[in-house]
Amino acid sequence: MKNLDSMISYVLDKAKKFNLCDKKLLYKLRLVCEEVLVNIINYAYQDLNEVGYVEIACDIDTKDKKITLKFIDEGIAFNMLDYEDPDLTLPLSERKAGGLGIYIIKTIMDKIEYHREDGKNTLILIKSIANFIE
User: Which residues in the chain come in under a pLDDT of 50?
Assistant: First the structure.
């Protein structure tokens, strides 16, 4: 957790280098990164008695006008696409705990891919930046 802000800053700084300075876009990217990273930090390595690692990649494609975020970890397998969205129509007292962060990620991003290979989780998140880049 002590490195959370620096990991998020990596993505935001890269976005700013490409003049993606729209406050709403940056807020959404921050929120998505925070949700993904906190989930990895808190859950991916919970069954292991070791320090885990997270690899983050951020690619900004000005031709196709999209930003791609990639998160890789060696924690327990977890595919957020298999996670059921919370029923937001229920009163808070009747909702199951958890899942709201995943729902937020699914709502903000345009495309989500997940695969597990060689003991590693790879989560790829893609967002169109067509409205934010010339």
Answer: none
